[in-house]
Amino acid sequence: MSTVLSTKKLKENQRSLLLNAGVSLVEYNAIIIEFVPYEVPVNIENAIFTSQNGVNSFFENVRSNKSTSIGGTPIEKCFCVGEKTKSLLEENGQKVIKMTEYATELADYLAKNHKNDSFHFFCGNIRSDEIPSKLKENNITFEEIEVYKTTLNLKKFERQFDAVLFFSPSGVRSFFSENKLNAAKAICIGKTTAFEAKKYTEYVVISNTTTVESVIAKAVNTLKNDD
To answer: Tetrapyrrole biosynthesis uroporphyrinogen III synthase domain: which residues (predicted)?
Structure first.
């Protein structure tokens, strides 16, 4: 039986996708996310979110800050990266104007279509530079607000796996700080994560879409083809 290591603890239905395919699972959180306190701007015309963590932190802050004048829909327009981020924004009553798979694509879209707008960018302490760089390059006004902190959760494994699932560049760095893949495949959630993984191994496979389920499906198919 093939064994997969997930660098993120999976939901029950996600675990089932592996177990029902006859794949054994080991899982842990390679990174730890901590929401940080910050002052929510009163008027937010355009907001940028690149992760579900950013969205969750934002709305937890809004809900816990009873004194704020912000109502149920604090943002006029949202721009985001990833289907799950978009869904989460919409669940919180937000209007998503544009969603892209990658930060580079969103950065290009904003530079091309919103040169005269200003933005609030809600992000973590370890964020990619594509969006801020592109906005600065095009003289687009934005305020960056750190809403969560990512720390690496280092853990050494004494055993080998057939595949390791990676969901972020920081998760890749965390795993490889203590471990090697050897002959295992790195199954990555997208091009950005894969780019980081390629610094450590040549055995990199990218999921078809940037969802956890797609990473799992790619792992199952890759392991079947290896048999």
So the answer is: 26-216
Q: Give the integer Cα–Cα distance in Å for 59 and 36.
A: 12
168-194 pLDDT, tens digit each:
999 999 999 999 998 899 999 999 999
Give the residue numbers spanning the domain of 55.
Answer: 33-150
Burial call 112-122: b when 16+ CB within 10 Å, e when fewer? eebeeeebbbb
Note whether 162 and 41 are within 8 A (CB). Answer: no
Residue position matching structure tokens 């879409």:
209
Q: How many domains does the chain have?
A: 2
83 and 116 assigned to the same domain? yes
User: Residue 7 is part of a domain; what is its CATH number?
Assistant: 3.40.50.10090
- Give the chain's residues under pLDDT 50: 67-71
